[in-house]
Write a sequence for this structure.
């Protein structure tokens, strides 16, 4: 098949009155209902059973059923074309490699199959994939970073005179293999010691030092230990 040209996807029946969009199969149950809410349009068992379940005396489904169905389908297509990567939904089942966004420009990848109704903060089910988040840390230790931390700047203003500052990376595991964390030193006159989580190492060493203000390091989990790549 030849490459398709990108076209704008309009929503079918987008300007129709709500009472023209049927809850699929509701007329066949004897209790016609109308809605422009996707959850409601597909709420009856008839939706899962297909067009045959919406027949009345073997007549084709009502036009309101068809309008509601087409509105639902084109809305979902328009949504995914608008967002690019859909937002997390607790009712959806995700699998290893599934990517979602949290609605704030941060992406997560599922690291488990049959991943249903698990919070994005559950690091056994989700791993940070892409973020623009930059967090300033004033204390003397980070142990461990937040599940959605990407860039952490440590300035030591609340460290109470401790030097060096300490940063403990998460314990590397198959569920965070590939996660990247960037640490920047904003501690004037001081250093940061970065440790692998638990008893793990960074490039074979117990810790790496960021000595001097504005020094930085980028670290990636290989699933067993951490590697410093910058």
């Amino acid at each position: 098949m030849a490459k398709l040209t990108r076209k704008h996807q309009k929503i079918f029946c987008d300007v129709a009155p709500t009472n023209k969009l049927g809850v699929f199969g509701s007329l066949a149950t004897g209790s016609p209902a109308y809605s422009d809410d996707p959850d409601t349009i597909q709420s009856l068992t008839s939706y899962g059973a297909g067009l045959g379940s919406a027949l009345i005396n073997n007549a084709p489904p009502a036009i309101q059923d068809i309008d509601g169905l087409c509105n639902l389908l084109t809305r979902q297509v328009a949504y995914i074309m608008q967002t690019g990567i859909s937002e997390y939904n607790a009712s959806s089942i995700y699998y290893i490699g599934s990517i979602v966004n949290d609605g704030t420009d941060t992406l997560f990848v599922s690291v488990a199959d049959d991943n249903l109704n698990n919070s994005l903060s559950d690091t056994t089910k989700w791993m940070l994939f892409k973020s623009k988040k930059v967090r300033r840390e004033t204390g003397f230790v980070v142990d461990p970073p937040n599940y959605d931390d990407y860039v952490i700047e440590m300035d030591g203003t609340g460290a109470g005179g401790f030097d060096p500052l300490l940063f403990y990376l998460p314990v590397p595991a198959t569920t965070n293999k590939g996660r990247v964390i960037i640490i920047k030193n904003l501690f004037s006159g001081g250093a940061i010691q970065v440790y692998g989580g638990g008893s793990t190492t960074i490039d074979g060493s117990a810790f790496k030092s960021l000595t001097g203000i504005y020094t930085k390091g980028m670290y990636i989990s290989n699933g067993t230990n951490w590697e410093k790549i910058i």
User: Anything to note?
Assistant: The domain at 85-131 is CATH 2.10.10 (Seminal Fluid Protein  PDC-109 (Domain B)). Helices lie at 38-41, 45-49, 63-83. The mean pLDDT is 96. The longest strand covers residues 180-185.
